[in-house]
Amino acid sequence: LDRMAERSREFLGERNIVKVSITLRGRELSNKEYAIEKLNKFVAGLMDSAEVDQTIKRQGNQFIVILRPKK
């Protein structure tokens, strides 16, 4: 996730929107709270350069959050 955070920070620096998704497979689907916790930590680490455009949302077996650069 560290590399993903670095790349996201680069995209946000270029004034682009970032979509972060975590895909759960198999047994992972029974531990949804873990995926939400991971996404919350990821978003908290980027709050200095990003705002949440769309809160964490489940789409099938994925959890998705959309971030936009701060104005």
Concise description?
The protein contains 2 helices and 3 strands; from the N terminus they run H-E-H-E-E.
List the helices and strands and how they pair.
Blueprint: H1 2-13, E1 18-23, H2 32-45, E2 50-59, E3 62-69
Antiparallel strand pairs: 1-3, 2-3
Shape: elongated
By DSSP (H or I, 4+ residues per run), the number of helices equals: 2
Q: Helix content range of the residues, please?
A: 25-40%
User: What would the average pLDDT be, to the nearest integer?
Assistant: 93
> What is the CA-CA span between the terminal residues?
25 Å
Find the count of extended strands (DSSP E, 2+ residues): 3
Radius of gyration: 12 Å
Give start-end ranges of low-pLDDT stretches: none
Beta-strand fraction estimate? 25-35%
N-to-C SSE string, H for helix and E for strand: HEHEE
Strand order, main sheet: write it out. Answer: 1-3-2
* Largest sheet geometry: 3 strands, antiparallel
Structural class designation:
alpha+beta
